[in-house]
Amino acid sequence: VRQRTVLEEGWKTVAALSRDVSDTLTAVVPIKDLAEWVRMRRRIAAAVPVRTLQVQTVEESRAIVVLQYVGTRAQLDKAFERLGLSLIESGGELSIVNR
Question: What Å distances lie between residue 22 and 5, 14, 32, 39, 52, CA to CA?
Answer without folding.
Answer: 27, 14, 31, 25, 11
